[in-house]
Amino acid sequence: MSRDASSLLPLTPAVFHVLLAIAEADTHGYAILKDVARRTEGRVVLSTGTLYGIVKRLLADGLIEESRRRPPAAEDDERRRYYHLTAFGRAVAAAEADRLAQMIATARTRRLIPGRGQA
């Protein structure tokens, strides 16, 4: 039985940010925190408690899994756990991105935000 990605929508902003951080490469917790803060220019700063609560939920829901791949020993810390998106996690993140894009399109048609090419 295949799971429907839209059944987990909408995602909280924090969960979506974590999925975005993991989307490109296997990533450990501290790197996730740094990526979210950097990408949002400091507007979103996750605490470690919030992050690990999200990670626990994403693992339980099958959106991420712990990676077996590790960087070379000289660049690694054995205490780190690396995570990557599962195929289902990627589908959920894509479904959320599509949902948000549709909301932005509606906001543009309602003139709440400028449309493309408008000032």
Textual characterization of the structure:
The chain is mainly alpha-helical and 119 residues long. It has one domain (10-109): Winged helix-like DNA-binding domain superfamily/Winged helix DNA-binding domain (Arc Repressor Mutant, subunit A, Orthogonal Bundle). 50% of the residues lie in helices and 8% in strands. The chain contains four helices and three strands, in the order αβααββα. The protein has helices at residues 13-23, 29-39, 48-61, 87-109; strands at residues 27-28, 64-66, 82-85. It has a three-stranded antiparallel beta sheet. Helix 1 crosses helix 2 and helix 1 packs across helix 4 (87-109). It is globular and about 55 Å long. The N and C termini lie far apart (48 Å). The relative contact order is 0.18. The model has no long low-confidence stretch (mean pLDDT 91).
Tell me briefly what this model is.
It contains 4 helices and 3 strands; from the N terminus they run αβααββα. The protein has 119 residues and is mostly helical. It has a 3-stranded antiparallel β-sheet with strand order 1-3-2.
